[in-house]
Amino acid sequence: MNELMNHTADMGQAEMFSKAWYNEYFRRAAESSAHARFCEAVYGRDLCQHGMMDVDEMAFLATMLKPGEKILEIGCSNGHITEQLHEQAGCEIFGLDYADVAVEQA
Questions:
Q1: More confident residue, 4 or 17
Q2: Is 68 left (phi over 0), alpha (psi -120 to 50) or beta?
Q3: Which of 8, 67, 73, 102 is least surrounded by Cβ atoms within 10 Å, i.e. has the fewest?
Q4: Is the pLDDT reported for residue 52 higher than 70?
Q5: C-alpha distance from residue 61 to each of 82, 86, 106 (Å)
Q6: For 22-34, b where at least 16 C-beta lie within 10 A, e where not — what string?
Q7: Quick one: 102 exposed, middle or buried, by C-beta within 10 A (0-12, 13-18, 19+)?
Q8: pLDDT of residue 51
Q9: Does the pLDDT value for residue 15 go beyond 90?
Q10: How far from 66 is each of 17, 48, 86, 96, CA to CA, in Å?
């Protein structure tokens, strides 16, 4: 996991969690087997999440969504969680994110 976060070592507070930071995060996370193992261990499935809900919480959220319902998700990252919710609930989700790399991966 350290190799995933090393790009933050020289950043100040203003740069942390900027568009550049998220682009680099998603670029590294997509290539990191350590991050994939972390997600599986912590969240129950590798959906490239960080600080997000686990699979049980996602399943609960899916029960509140209706098939065909239209959802706007702001901050969808690479869309892996969005896709999972769509598959579980049958709803239509339109996702937006400001990290170019995440959108390219979606």
A1: 17
A2: left
A3: 67
A4: yes
A5: 11, 11, 21
A6: bbbbbbbbeebee
A7: buried
A8: 75
A9: no
A10: 33, 25, 10, 20
